Amino acid sequence: MGSQEIVVDARGHRCPVPTLRLRKALEAAPAGGRVRLLADDPMARIDVPHFAAEVGAKILAREELDGGFSFLVAKP
Question: How far apart are CA 68 and CA 76, in angstroms?
Answer without folding.
Answer: 25
